[in-house]
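Allow me, if you will, to draw on your knowledge of protein folds for a short while. The matter concerns a single protein, recorded as an amino acid sequence and a row of backbone structure tokens. Could you please explain, in whatever detail you think fit, how the structure tokens follow from the sequence? I remain grateful for any guidance, and I place the record below:

…
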Amino acid sequence: MCSSGLKNIGEKFRFHEVVRIWLVFGLMISFGYGQKKDSLQIRTPRNAAFYALLCPGGGQIYNRKYVKAGIIFAAEIYAGFRFNEYRVGYRYYNDERVFPKHQYLEKRNKSAWWIGFIYIYGLIDAIVDAHLESFDEIMSEDLEQSSAKTQSRKEKIE
């Protein structure tokens, strides 16, 4: 009885170490973006996808959507905590647990699906944000004026 409790505590500590490593890794990435970049540099969907694959929320940091990055990173960490909790509950099941054993397995699997869903959502969101970066500038242009300029250019060419 005591040894399974110690294993349970050991696994929780290992999981907390992994979370700390991801947190430090996320901070290292965010410090890299602390410098001012050239305002003419356009963010590309390819780079956004690379950073989103590198770390959950990395693509949002690349696109300068820091709140979204924090939400995605926090959701990923929360889903990971829940996955570990249900994994440990299933592995070291005894009659004192809250749920029946099969529910721990179901909840663990559902948490794993959430981890994957959040990761893919962050990837797609980063790519779409990078694609739509210049959308406001394009839509704010006066279309009648730009079509008149194009018409006058065509007349000059002819």
Notes: DSSP finds seven helices and no strands in the chain.
